[in-house]
């Protein structure tokens, strides 16, 4: 899906310059393919819940015209789509709920360009300041535990922003960071004033020829220094009861979400508790797939699935209510999704974790979070959140 040989209908991108004007670069790290979408025929956005239905209609119309769509959906789109929240306020982020460009065929993109070469010899280490101290985090953490003990939810993904500064070019930052942390499904979205840099290891869903697949990630272990230690940590992760419970909760949640869009009896779990290894950590994943019903639209897909249950908690709707009340700011693109939609119906979206928002004044926002369950501990979860920002900071964090 989205093979360059099939999609490229224009001259390759000139590697000696940075993209000019509105653009999206999306990379599939599994096969090393990066695609550049530039010179959009139109930009489609929705800033309020009332604008969302028309935005989806315009997106559908663009694909019928043979155009590709590339962009993002912000986390708060979930509040605009879910009937439970109908008529209520949607948390207002500083970024749109939906922002997509409609493009002709993309071009192959090579990261070795003039803008990124400047950072090639200088490692990126951006100091970040957490929005919450440990004490402030613990207060919200304790509230989450009370909801869990009361039986409201089984798991809540509690997140907060970290703030820093970056004055450079977005693709240069992406290139520097991807050298430190290889990317599974990431890229850069530069369709508005803000720039989004995503280095996500997690696919939200992809759909091709009527089959939809999801691969949630829950459960993390650090890499070991020696091969024997590394293998032991991976093996322990597969047996860790807490990680398995967190993973299984999200698998069940996504099975339920997919069942609302799929043919009866077609939802199946392809594998459980599979450990995938990355440069700095081992990650537990599971696979789910289903056969989509005929006539499912983009709006249906997002209404049925968005946001991904791995970034909310379970049950999803109650977790989203608690998140809205406890977190200190809307998440924006973080925990939303970046992705592509091809004219032939092929779709791929990531889960926008390890995702940065760059604002025109140089402000950088990097959100972090972790799953809170009954036996979680506040200090451990807070430290896990800070560790998740080390792909950007190196070690520079001021509490």
- Which structural class is indicated by helix and strand composition? alpha+beta
What is the CATH topology assignment of the largest domain? Anthranilate synthase
Global shape: globular
In the CATH hierarchy, what is the superfamily of the largest domain?
Anthranilate synthase
Radius of gyration: 20 Å
Separation of termini?
43 Å
What's the short story on this structure?
The protein is an alpha+beta fold and 399 residues long. Helix content is 30%, strand content 30%. Residues 3-8 and 113-121 have low confidence and may be disordered.
Account of the protein in words:
- It is a single chain.
- It is globular and about 50 Å long.
- It has 12 helices and 20 strands.
- The chain is of the alpha+beta class.
- It folds into 2 domains: 23-111 and 126-210 and 297-392, Anthranilate synthase (4-Layer Sandwich); 217-291, no CATH class.
- Residues 135-388 form the Chorismate-utilising enzyme C-terminal domain.
- GO terms for molecular function: 4-amino-4-deoxychorismate synthase activity.
- This is Aminodeoxychorismate synthase, component I.
């Amino acid at each position: 899906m989205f093979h360059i040989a099939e999609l490229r209908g224009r001259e390759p991108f000139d590697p000696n310059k940075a993209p000019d004007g509105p653009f999206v670069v999306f990379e599939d790290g599994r096969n090393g393919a990066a695609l550049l979408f530039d010179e959009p025929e139109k930009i489609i956005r929705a800033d309020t819940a009332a604008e969302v239905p028309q935005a989806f209609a315009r997106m559908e119309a663009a694909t019928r015209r043979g155009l590709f769509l590339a962009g993002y959906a912000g986390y708060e789109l979930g509040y605009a789509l879910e009937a439970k929240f109908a008529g209520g306020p949607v948390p207002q982020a500083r970024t749109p709920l939906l922002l997509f460009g409609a493009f002709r065929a993309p071009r192959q993109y090579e990261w070795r360009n003039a803008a990124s070469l400047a950072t090639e010899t200088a490692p990126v280490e951006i100091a970040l300041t957490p929005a919450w101290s440990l004490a402030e985090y613990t207060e919200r953490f304790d509230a989450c535990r009370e909801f869990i003990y009361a039986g409201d939810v089984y798991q809540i993904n509690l997140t907060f922003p970290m703030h820093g500064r970056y004055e450079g070019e977005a693709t240069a930052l992406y290139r520097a960071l991807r050298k430190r942390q290889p990317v599974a499904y990431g890229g850069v979205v530069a369709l508005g004033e803000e720039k989004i840099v995503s280095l996500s290891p997690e696919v939200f869903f992809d759909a091709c020829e009527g089959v939809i697949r999801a691969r949630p990630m829950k459960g993390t272990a650090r890499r070991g220094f020696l091969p024997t230690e590394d293998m032991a940590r991976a093996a322990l992760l597969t047996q860790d009861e807490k990680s398995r419970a967190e993973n299984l909760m999200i698998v069940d949640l996504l099975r339920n979400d997919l069942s609302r869009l799929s043919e009866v009896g077609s939802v199946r779990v392809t594998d459980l508790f599979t450990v995938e290894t990355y440069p700095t950590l081992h990650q537990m994943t599971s696979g789910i797939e289903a056969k989509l019903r005929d006539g499912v639209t983009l709006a249906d897909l997002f209404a049925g699935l968005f946001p991904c249950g791995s970034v909310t908690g379970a049950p999803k709707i109650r977790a989203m209510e608690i998140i809205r009340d406890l977190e200190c700011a809307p998440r924006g693109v973080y925990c939303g999704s970046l992705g592509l939609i091809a004219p032939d119906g092929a779709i791929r979206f990531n889960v926008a974790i390890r995702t940065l928002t760059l604002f025109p004044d140089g402000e950088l926002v990097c959100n972090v979070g972790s799953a809170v369950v009954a036996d979680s501990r506040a200090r451990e979860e807070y430290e896990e959140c800070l560790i998740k920002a080390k792909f950007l900071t190196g070690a520079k964090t001021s509490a």
